[in-house]
Specification:
Elements lengths: L6 H5 L7 H15 L8 H17 L2 H10 L16 H7 L1 H8 L6 E3 L21 E7 L1 H6 L1 E12 L14 E3 L8 E8 L2 E8 L8 E3 L11 E12 L8 E4 L15 E7 L6 E3 L2 E8 L1 H6 L1 E6 L4 E6 L8 E4 L15 E7 L7 H11 L15 H11 L1
């Protein structure tokens, strides 16, 4: 199986492209490789499918963020809502966009030469969708290291209990739309340079549902939803980072009249840690030791996010010595790899001395061993840190 191409390369846009630029690029590719314009051309059909999959990811902020950070691997386990290998599924998924492409605007589903039999003019009844909700969640580094479960009380639109979400006073109040006769769409035809173009538009009377309500529910006034709240349990995987978003399908606002609920988007923010600093999946720590420990050597306990690690420091340890504790950092999201803990050893110089302590240090200062004798070949701190990563 051939490796997938970069989605930005597929659409011919840069990573800094705006949503409009991405949409325009996809429209151009869809026009170029549409099956009706390339009958029997399997290569064009594959490129048409490839462009649809790329647009599905890059037009979705959540999927785009995961793709930008982790590439194709970051999209594992996500649902596209359609099958990018099936033309009929693509036309159904991006029906409004194709209607604009091939029917001269106006939305709805359109057909260009019948879409080669793939949904040409066969519009489906509209299904309403609830709005998405975005909720910020703060996490500690300890929670990020292991993953966690959060229970959130979310104010949202919930189905109306009185009418069961239908928006109607009673079941008999829901009747077939007299304008579209229950189909949810109306058909228009017009001539163009390409021949007769058929446009299938959404019925404005029933908004594409095929049904209208005679008597509305008094509680929700025909909407099918009311303001309420719900306790939602969210499983957050280990290794998430500040700015990431987690999408929980169907946990957002309830949809009007029994449609599909929206999504709940969890926006991750990272609390500042009192001890560690984070860069990617590595953690950084300034660890202070006393002068006697540095001079004589010592066994010390380096703090970790969970527990401690015993480390032996040799006699004569200098301030600025860098230690790397492999696998003691943070895990990569959806991967087994774990970052490192980079420890910068700092020899603590006391700021207050008693008379006796001053006298003792003054005596020691007379010794040649206490005269600085730096190693001219010693690498700088930044060089040593960089070397750690080059050696990995």
């Amino acid at each position: 199986m051939m490796a997938k191409r970069d989605f930005y390369e597929v659409l011919g846009v840069s990573k800094t492209a705006t949503a409009d630029e991405i949409k325009k690029a996809y429209r151009k590719k869809a026009m170029q490789y549409h099956p009706d314009r390339n009958p029997g051309d399997k290569e064009a059909e594959e490129k048409f499918k490839e462009a649809a999959e790329a647009y599905d990811v890059l037009s979705n902020p959540d999927k785009k963020a995961r793709y930008d950070q982790f590439g194709h691997e970051g999209l594992r386990g996500t649902s596209s809502g359609f099958d990018p290998n099936d033309l009929g599924s693509i036309f159904s998924h991006f029906g409004d966009l194709f209607g604009d492409l091939f029917s001269g605007g106006g939305g709805g589903f359109g057909s260009f030469g019948g879409f080669g039999g793939f949904g040409g003019g066969q519009a489906q009844k509209a299904v309403r969708r609830g709005g998405d909700l975005r909720v910020p969640v703060k996490l500690t580094l300890e929670e990020i290291a292991t993953g966690c479960t959060k229970k959130l009380k979310i104010p949202k639109q919930v189905p109306c209990q009185k009418c069961g979400g239908t928006g109607a006073h009673d079941p008999q109040s829901i009747v077939t739309c007299p304008t579209c006769h229950g189909s949810g769409h109306v058909v228009h035809q017009q001539r163009s340079m390409f021949g007769v173009i058929q446009q299938v538009g959404v019925c404005s009377a029933c908004e594409g549902t095929g049904q209208v309500i005679k008597d509305k529910c008094p509680d929700c006034r025909g909407k099918g939803t009311v303001r309420g709240e719900e306790v939602v349990e969210i499983n957050i995987p280990a290794g998430v980072a500040d700015g990431m978003q987690i999408r929980e399908r169907g946990k957002g606002n309830a949809a009007p009249k029994g449609g599909i609920p929206g999504d709940l988007i969890i926006a991750i923010s990272e609390e500042e840690h009192p001890v560690f600093e984070r860069e990617g999946n590595n953690l950084y720590l300034n660890y202070y030791i006393s002068f006697p420990q540095a001079a004589l050597g010592a066994e010390v306990e380096i703090p970790l996010l969970h527990g401690r690690a015993k480390v032996k420091l040799p006699a004569g340890t200098q301030s600025g010595k860098v230690l790397r504790l492999q696998g003691k950092g943070l895990p990569e999201i959806h991967h087994r790899a774990v970052g490192d803990l980079i420890v910068n050893v700092v020899v603590w110089t006391p700021t207050r001395l008693s008379k006796e302590e001053k006298e003792q240090i003054e005596k020691l200062a007379q010794s040649d061993n206490f005269t600085p004798q730096p190693d001219k070949k010693a690498r700088s701190f930044f060089t040593r840190v960089r070397q750690f990563f080059e050696d990995k």
